[in-house]
Structures are given as C-alpha cells and as structure tokens.
C-alpha cells in the first residue's frame, strides 16, 4: 500500500466539569465529548522519513516542524512498534486551529490510524488508544468519536449511546486560545474567588437528554467550567453567545477551551437559518453548520 487516508472529526464538549488542579499540572474532569461533522483528512504516503505538509483554510497557523501533533503521533507509533519507519503526512485542515475543537488531536489520531495501516502494523485499537492518551488528553476521543464521557484528564473514555442526531452551528473566532492559558485563567478566577472546587459530577439530566435525543433538554443543560475563563480572556465572545440565544439557539456555549462558540439548533433547517442570522447581523464573521455524533478516525 503506497498511501492511506483517514478522516477525523472535530469535537464539542456538551459538559466540561473541571476539578481541582492536580500536582502534575492537569485537572481531573468529567468531560462529555461529542464528535461533529467538521473533518480533517490525514493522508500518509510511503517515505524514507516522517514529514508533514498542511493544506486548507487554516494551514498557515499550523507548525510543520517536530511540534506538529501528527508527526509526534507517527513517531510515537514507530517507537511503540520498535522500528524506524517513514511517512509523508499530508493534512487537509477544516477544523479551526486552537479553536477548542481538538483540531491538533484529530490530526494526531488520524496519523495513528493511517500509519498503523500504511506500515502494516495491525496494532489493535486499545494500543492506539494508549499511545493517543500519552500524546494529549483529547486524542483518545478523536480516535473513538461518537459521544463519550472522559474522566481522569479526559483520556479515560466510556462510550455513550445517543438517541438521535443533534444539529449545531459553530461561530469561528479570529485567532485561537491556548488551552493551557485557559485552564490557568480558570485556576486564577477560582483562587481569586476563594471558592471550594467540587469534585466533578456527571449531569444525569444531560445524560438522559443525550440518550433520548432531546435537543431542547440538551440545550438547556450544556455546561462548561472553562467558559468564564475563556470569556475573561476574550470578552467579545459574550455578545456572540447572546446573539445565538436571541436567534433561537436551544443552547449556546464556548466549545472546550474556546474561542469557538457552539449553538445547538432544533434541526438542520434551523441550523442553516441560525448560521445565516449570526453572520448577517455581524454577530459572527464565519459560521459552520454541523451534526453529531459522527464516527472517530476512519479510513476512507
Ligand atoms: C479543553 C479540552 O479540549 C476539553 O476536551 C481538553 O481538556 C484539552 O485537551 P488537550 O488540548 O488534549 O490538552 P493537553 O495537550 O492534554 O494539555 C494541554 C494543557 O491543558 C491543561 N489541561 C489539559 C487537560 C486537563 N485535564 N487538565 C489541564 O489542566 C494543562 O495545562 C496542559 O498542559
Ligand atoms: N496538526 C496540528 N493542527 C493544529 N494545531 C497543531 C497541530 N500540531 C500542533 N499544533 C499546535 O497546537 C496548538 C493547538 O491547536 P489545536 O487546534 O489542537 O487546539 P484546540 O483545538 O484548541 O485543542 P483542544 O480543543 O484539544 O484543546 C496550535 O496553536 C498549534 O500551534
């Protein structure tokens, strides 16, 4: 086989509950991930060494050196297999960069699946999941997709069956936010408020809404403990969220660490209308409609 292509989705967090800061610098989470139909494609081609090239709308914001998460993933896989392998990784980027939608994690997951295939390693999914967890907290979910609860740093996953398809609109922001900076801002706000940080708990009503496919209830129960921090760092996101609610979104939330804003719509038609209203009124400059849940990293 001389080349392999893998498609990997973006995510939104429908519940993101952040526990106290741990000694290792991470936070324990209850993180309900939901994969949505915005996809990066990662192609792996036979080569002597491991290289990366990035194409698409956001390509100029993505590093092509050894810090690229797809390169790091391919290297980690080769190391796990105990041999030196090469692959030219070609990424077609549609997921916003540093947008809180796990774009880099998607490329890492895509590279794991593509190189496992290209190099004929035949490693089982569990091995890929273990390597993924070492690469980043969101990478295992990018492999798995669907809807799932993440605990620990977010890397320990349990799949959640959902009762239907949910329709979303994403408002993309100018410029990204660093995930570490948003977590640090969350800690700073908590320290300033001298608030006790409770151990994160799964929201049972949200679980029920996902299970029955009840978009109204899901919209009412979306929650994100990083939202206050993201809004502090990017105050201009608050009016965008308000505009979405005014235009009938069932729920409006910052996606993960932001700055992308996510709006839950009633159905596909409502999502299209909502996306149009947000751009027509200037509340958002770019919107994307998408649905979830969708599969994780998949060979095409
Ligand atoms: C905000 C989310 O996207 C929600 O799914 C994730 O929690 C972030 O996952 P990620 O981007 O894969 O993050 P990682 O690469 O693992 O970690 C980046 C940085 O985010 C912070 N971090 C991340 C995950 C976590 N449970 N606690 C943290 O405090 C740490 O400062 C860490 O150094
Ligand atoms: N393949 C990649 N795609 C995007 N960014 C990458 C990639 N590899 C490394 N990066 C770096 O990682 C940083 C974070 O990018 P990413 O798109 O993963 O953020 P994010 O979507 O906010 O992540 P998350 O939602 O998982 O917290 C970028 O600013 C970029 O410098």
Task: Give a verbal description of the structure.
Its EC number is 2.7.1.148. It is an enzyme of class 2 (transferase). The structure is a single chain. The chain is an alpha+beta fold and 300 residues long. The radius of gyration is 19 Å and the shape is globular. It is built from 10 helices and 12 strands. The longest helix is centred in the middle third of the chain and has 16 residues, at 103-118. Strands 1, 2, 3, 4, 5, 6, 8 and 12 form an 8-stranded mixed beta sheet that branches. A 4-stranded antiparallel beta sheet has the order 9-10-7-11, sandwiched between helices. The protein has 2 domains: 3-160, Ribosomal Protein S5, domain 2; 166-292, Alpha-Beta Plaits (2-Layer Sandwich). 4-diphosphocytidyl-2-C-methyl-D-erythritol binds at residues 13, 16, 25-27, 29, 31, 102, 105, 136-138, 153-154, 179-180, 183, 256-257. Adenosine-5'-triphosphate binds at residues 62-63, 67-70, 97-105, 107, 138, 176, 179, 256-257.
Question: Could you give the order of the helices and strands?
Answer: EEEHEHHHEEEHHHEHHEEHEE
What percent of the residues sit in helical stretches (DSSP H or I)? 25-40%
Low-confidence stretches: none
Distance linking N and C termini: 14 Å
Total count of strands = 12
**Overall pLDDT confidence:** 97
Biggest β-sheet description: 8 strands, mixed
> For the record, what CATH class of the largest domain applies?
Alpha Beta
Strand content: 25-35%
Count of alpha/pi helices? 10
Binding site for ATP: 96-106
Active site: 11, 138
InterPro entries: GHMP_kinase_C_dom, GHMP_kinase_C_sf, GHMP_kinase_N_dom, IspE, Ribosomal_Su5_D2-typ_SF, Ribsml_uS5_D2-typ_fold_subgr
Domain GHMP kinase N-terminal: 68-146
């Amino acid at each position: 086989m001389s080349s392999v292509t893998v498609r990997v989705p973006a995510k939104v967090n429908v519940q993101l509950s952040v526990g106290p800061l741990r000694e290792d610098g991470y936070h324990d989470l209850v993180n309900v991930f939901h994969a949505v139909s915005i996809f990066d494609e990662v192609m792996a081609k036979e080569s002597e060494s491991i290289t990366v090239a990035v194409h698409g709308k956001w390509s100029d914001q993505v590093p092509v050196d050894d810090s690229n998460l797809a390169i790091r993933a391919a290297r980690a896989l080769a190391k796990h297999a105990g041999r030196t392998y090469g692959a030219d990784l070609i990424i077609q980027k549609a997921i916003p960069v540093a947008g809180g939608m796990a774009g880099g994690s998607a490329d890492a997951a895509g590279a794991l699946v593509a190189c496992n295939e290209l190099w004929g390693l035949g490693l089982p999914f569990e091995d890929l999941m273990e390597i993924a967890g070492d690469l980043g907290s969101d990478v295992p979910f990018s492999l798995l997709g669907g809807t799932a609860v993440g605990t620990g740093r977010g890397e320990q996953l349990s799949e959640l069956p959902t009762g239907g398809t949910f329709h979303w609109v994403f408002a993309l922001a100018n410029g990204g936010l660093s995930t570490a900076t948003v977590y640090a801002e969350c800690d700073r706000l908590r320290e300033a408020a001298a608030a006790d940080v409770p151990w994160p708990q799964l929201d049972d009503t949200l679980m029920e809404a996902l299970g029955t496919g009840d978009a109204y209830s899901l919209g009412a129960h979306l929650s994100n403990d990083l939202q206050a921090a993201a809004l502090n760092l990017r105050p201009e996101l608050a009016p965008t969220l308000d505009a979405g609610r005014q235009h009938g979104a069932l729920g409006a939330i910052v996606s993960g660490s932001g700055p992308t804003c996510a709006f839950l719509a009633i159905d596909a038609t409502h999502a299209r209308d909502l996306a149009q209203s947000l751009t027509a009124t200037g509340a958002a400059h770019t919107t994307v409609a998408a649905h979830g849940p969708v599969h994780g990293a998949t060979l095409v």
